[in-house]
């Protein structure tokens, strides 16, 4: 009793690798975990989705809101330079209460991507700056006016044509818009003479202009519902005041020279929207034909006069609308109209849509988008006395602040980890990379760092266990290491440190970003069922629902995360610290998380001493021969003897050293790939590592370097296998020679055990191990000569082209028979593989299918990937090639809508589904399942996109939606040996919903054609 622990490992009294404070759970937590196991997948898995909160940025808190004596801020200057020299952007200054970390407050380059141009932004710490109470009040007004005017709204309530009208919310108390948890100023600056003491200062003219506009909106009679009257109380008739043709009169009784109008910033008093003037429209007036360019209305009116008359009402026919537009009397209706450029929503400028990874058609579509201009009478406009380059910069600020806030968050996490090693500093940008997922669609993500961190973690834990538990065999060590590094444990450790709150798991939505003083116009009320900001551990906050939107936050900061992402973030964080500070820094992170491990040099010395007590039976000439082949001189020869001793001998076998060598080679090769190929993604890095770190690759090394000759064993069967393997190499042998059969596992183990021996003999000098093994393993696989495993290549190729792989397998004696089928449009390829293992049988079958595909011009090299987010795809597999029922092209029937009746379906069984899932993505999933079952190639989509300046209504299944974009998709399905059909769906507010609509139409069409049976629709 008690011989085995809960993990079926021999019980030991030694210190557990995992810190108890991170593993210990309350009864409630155990109960919740038990409930969750009944309903969802385990922690650290991809299927499991978890609701979590977000960690607030402490550096943006502010307590200066009610300070009557002013406040001394830390200042950080933003400067913007554009690669298009004709475009200028004003500098800005960020004023915060807290001092930012040096690598957050000083940034040499942040790239902001606009269509057709790139803005290079820099951040420079500029000391401290004191604002008095009056300046602070004006700065508040400036921020409230511009952020709400450009990205929100200045008027509250709906449009009206009489009676009570919309209110100007800036007339109310705006203190609630200044949350102490996020308090800072963003103010424009102007450059001064280089010789001056300070090369810049706040542009107080611009700030004062914003503050003046707030005062104007609070007090002006123009913004009331009462008619504008003369001093005698009578309505002033139009054109009673003479007008200079060289000037235009604006709403606030100011006159501006026509020559000075271009690019001035104006506020429309009837809408509260900000514009910039493009030009004066010569030969126009308020009586000109209406072109439908105001407020996005359709051209239903004969002239601008009629538009304002019907849109906003009037009192006196004689004065038509010249008397009323929200109380503005048009004194000069004959003035020429002004063409205005509208303000627009901010965009995510952190994503480069012009990069090679972007769809060309999308780029072209964006570039062809016309700029919307409107024509408007000057008297409805108020001049806002700020330069246009200030307004240009406002559109950069949301993305700019998003990146800086993210760096603040990374710096905050760095402070919590608190790695105080000498001469060590990890940039906040590297930590930011480690907490950023690919869903953010930015130029950084954690995936590469995660791959490196996985290897570092595996090595550190393996090395610790090897040194600490000298009596445990390889199986026990492997089990303990697996328990420590598994995703479930990493997930638990991360939750213990609340790491999930730092993870960035969705792309930046600038429309939901709000500055201090800005009223949000896109609220997302919390419907999560959690009142607290931090989500408690409860089974009700776990799900496997695939329709859950990952990363999108509610107003309380709750968002759904994939459980595995949390474990991945742990590995990425370890990788980031390893890159900056080596193994010591990475181990610090592991300890911070709760992994109690130590690579104590004293333990290494003890391991060497234990080995030295044993006698080496190898002859000197054999040692010299082996050392010359390896390229390393051992200080402790018995380590070399152990490294070449198979378990069939009576000596101490190499298995423990193999366990250690496996992890160190994995680390060194991953590090080499990470540093050498900085421009390839994690997927390709993983493929390269898999090609280098595997038994086959290592077995070849033992033959090519002659190491197999030194393997000590007492197995005739192993000797026979080695002899046959060596003979399978072609003659003459060179570095590129490949055997025709698989190598014995013992040969691959030999390479790993020698690596482990060198590591211990060199006292854990991993650089020395790589110096020895890089030439031994050369030539190393590169992205140019990388060959994927046949089955992997087949899956990727078929996935990119929309073909399904169907697998059948059964036992034939001691062998496994695998049958893989790939249905092309009118050709069924069948492959059969036979081998002792199912894995290798699949590989054989896949190789033959790939050859048949290549005969038809289908390969990775010449395939064009289709858009794979249209339908959800999953694959099933198995393969020896036969071609069944191949038709000649001239006999194919391919009607545009419907099927050719000349041929019949090879498989006559008709799919029967209970219903179509009408949730978003449901129709596509239903269609995918049918295609997969029948092995029909995946349908293809074409989409028509239309944009409108007025909201469009869409009657969708679950709700009625409105939007400014309309998507209508056509779906095309080819049924092998039958024909093709296509259907148009209904217009929808987003592209994927339009895919669903088209999929529904196709499913019903299939039912009409007798190719599908559908029950009720959910």
What is the strand tally? 27
* Spatial order of the strands forming the largest sheet: 4-5-2-3-8-9
Q: Average pLDDT value?
A: 83
Shape: globular
The number of helices is 27
Percent strand:
15-25%
> What is the radius of gyration computed over CA atoms, rounded to a whole number of angstroms?
35 Å
Q: In which range does the helix fraction lie?
A: 25-40%
> For the report, how would you describe the main beta sheet?
6 strands, antiparallel
* pLDDT < 50 stretches: 1-14, 20-29, 159-164, 224-237, 313-328, 356-368, 864-908
Q: How far apart are the first and last residues' alpha carbons, in Å?
A: 56 Å
Q: Name the structural class.
A: alpha+beta
Verbal overview:
It contains 27 helices and 27 strands. Mean pLDDT is 83; it is low at 1-14, 20-29, 159-164, 224-237, 313-328, 356-368 and 864-908. The longest helix has 31 residues, at 563-593. The chain is an alpha+beta fold. A six-stranded antiparallel sheet has the order 4-5-2-3-8-9. A five-stranded antiparallel sheet has the order 15-14-13-12-16, with helices on one face. A four-stranded antiparallel sheet has the order 19-20-21-22.
């Amino acid at each position: 009793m008690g011989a085995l622990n809960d993990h079926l490992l021999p019980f030991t009294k030694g210190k557990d690798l995992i810190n108890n404070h991170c593993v210990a759970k309350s009864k409630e937590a155990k109960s919740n975990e038990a409930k969750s196991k009944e309903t969802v997948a385990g922690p650290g898995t991809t299927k499991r989705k978890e609701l979590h909160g977000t960690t607030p940025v402490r550096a943006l808190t502010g307590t200066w809101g009610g300070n009557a004596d002013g406040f001394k801020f830390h200042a950080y200057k933003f400067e913007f330079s554009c690669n298009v020299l004709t475009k200028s952007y004003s500098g800005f200054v960020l004023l915060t209460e807290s001092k930012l970390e040096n690598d957050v407050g000083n940034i040499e380059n942040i790239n902001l991507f606009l269509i057709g141009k790139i803005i290079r932004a820099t951040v420079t710490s500029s000391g401290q700056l004191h604002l008095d109470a009056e300046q602070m009040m004006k700065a508040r007004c400036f921020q409230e006016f511009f952020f709400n005017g450009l990205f929100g709204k200045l008027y509250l309530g709906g449009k009206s044509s009489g009676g009570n009208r919309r209110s100007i919310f800036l007339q109310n108390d705006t203190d609630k818009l200044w949350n102490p948890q996020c308090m800072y100023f963003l103010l424009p600056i102007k450059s001064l003479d280089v010789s001056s003491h300070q090369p810049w200062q706040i542009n107080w003219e611009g700030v004062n202009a914003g503050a003046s506009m707030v005062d104007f909106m609070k007090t002006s009679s123009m913004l009331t519902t009462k008619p504008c009257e003369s001093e005698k109380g009578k309505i002033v008739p139009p054109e009673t005041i003479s007008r200079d043709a060289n000037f235009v009169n604006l709403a606030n009784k100011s006159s501006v020279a026509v020559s000075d109008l271009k690019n001035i910033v104006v506020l429309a008093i009837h809408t509260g929207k900000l514009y910039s003037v493009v030009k004066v429209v010569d030969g126009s007036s308020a009586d000109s034909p209406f072109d439908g360019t105001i407020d996005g209305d359709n051209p239903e009116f004969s002239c601008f006069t009629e538009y304002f008359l019907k849109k906003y009402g009037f009192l006196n026919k004689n004065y038509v609308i010249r008397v009323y537009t929200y109380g503005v009397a048009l004194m000069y209706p004959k003035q020429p109209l002004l063409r205005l450029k509208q303000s627009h929503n901010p965009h995510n400028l952190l994503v480069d849509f012009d990069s090679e990874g972007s769809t060309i058609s999308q780029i072209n579509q964006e570039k062809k988008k016309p700029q919307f201009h409107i024509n408007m009478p000057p008297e409805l406009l108020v001049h806002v006395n700020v330069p246009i380059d200030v307004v240009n910069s406002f559109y950069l600020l949301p993305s700019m602040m998003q990146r800086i806030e993210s760096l603040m968050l990374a710096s905050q996490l760095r402070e919590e980890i608190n790695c105080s090693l000498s001469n060590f500093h990890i940039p906040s940008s590297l930590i930011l990379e480690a907490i950023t997922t690919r869903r953010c669609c930015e130029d950084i993500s954690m995936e590469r760092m995660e791959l490196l961190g996985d290897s570092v973690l595996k090595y550190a834990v393996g090395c610790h266990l090897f040194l600490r538990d000298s009596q445990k065999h390889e199986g026990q060590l492997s089990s303990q290491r697996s328990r420590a590094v598994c995703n479930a444990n990493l997930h638990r450790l991360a939750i213990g440190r609340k790491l999930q709150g730092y993870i960035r798991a969705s792309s930046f939505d600038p429309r939901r970003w709000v500055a201090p003083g800005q009223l949000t116009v896109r609220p997302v009320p919390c419907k999560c069922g959690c009142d607290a900001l931090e989500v408690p551990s409860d089974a009700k906050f776990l799900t496997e629902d695939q329709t859950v939107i990952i990363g999108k936050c509610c107003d309380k900061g709750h968002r759904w995360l994939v459980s595995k992402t949390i474990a991945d973030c742990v590995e990425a964080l370890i990788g980031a610290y390893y890159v900056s500070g080596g193994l010591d820094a990475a181990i610090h992170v592991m300890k911070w998380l709760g992994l109690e491990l130590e690579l104590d040099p004293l333990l290494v010395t003890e391991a060497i001493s234990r080995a030295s007590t044993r006698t080496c039976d190898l002859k000197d000439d054999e040692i010299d021969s082996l050392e010359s082949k390896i390229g390393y001189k051992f200080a402790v020869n018995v380590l070399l003897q152990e490294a070449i001793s198979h378990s069939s001998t009576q000596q101490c076998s190499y298995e423990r050293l193999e366990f250690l060598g496996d992890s160190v080679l994995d680390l060194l090769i991953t590090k080499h790939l990470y540093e050498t190929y900085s421009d390839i993604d994690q997927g390709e890095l993983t493929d390269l590592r898999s090609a280098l770190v595997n038994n086959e690759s290592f077995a070849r090394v033992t033959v090519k370097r002659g190491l197999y000759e030194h393997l000590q064993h007492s197995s005739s069967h192993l000797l026979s296998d080695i002899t046959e393997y060596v003979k399978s190499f072609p003659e003459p042998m060179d570095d590129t020679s490949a055997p025709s059969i698989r190598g014995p596992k013992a040969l691959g183990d030999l390479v790993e055990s020698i690596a482990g021996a060198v590591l211990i003999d060199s006292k854990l000098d991993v650089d020395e191990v790589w110096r020895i093994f890089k030439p031994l393993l050369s030539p190393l696989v590169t992205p140019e000569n990388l060959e994927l495993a046949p089955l992997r290549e087949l899956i990727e190729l078929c996935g990119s082209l929309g073909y399904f792989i169907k697998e059948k397998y059964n036992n034939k004696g001691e062998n496994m028979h695998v049958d893989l089928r790939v249905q092309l449009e009118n050709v069924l390829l069948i492959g059969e593989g036979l081998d002792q293992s199912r894995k290798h049988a699949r590989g054989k079958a896949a190789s033959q299918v790939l050859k048949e595909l290549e005969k038809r011009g289908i390969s990775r090299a010449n395939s064009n990937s289709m858009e794979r987010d249209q339908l959800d795809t999953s694959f099933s597999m198995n393969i020896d090639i036969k071609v069944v029922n191949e038709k000649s092209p001239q006999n194919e029937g391919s009607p545009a809508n419907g099927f050719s009746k000349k041929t019949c379906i090879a498989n006559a069984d008709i799919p029967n589904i209970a219903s179509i899932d009408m949730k978003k993505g449901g129709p596509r999933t239903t269609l995918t399942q049918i295609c997969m079952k029948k092995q029909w190639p995946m349908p293809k989509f074409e989409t028509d996109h239309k944009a409108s300046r007025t909201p469009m209504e869409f009657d969708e299944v679950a709700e009625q939606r409105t939007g400014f974009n309309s998507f209508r998709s056509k779906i095309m399905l080819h049924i092998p040996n039958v024909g093709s059909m296509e259907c148009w769906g209904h217009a929808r507010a987003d592209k994927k919903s339009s895919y669903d609509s088209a999929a529904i139409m196709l499913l019903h069409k299939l039912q009409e054609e007798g190719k599908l049976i559908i029950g009720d629709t959910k």
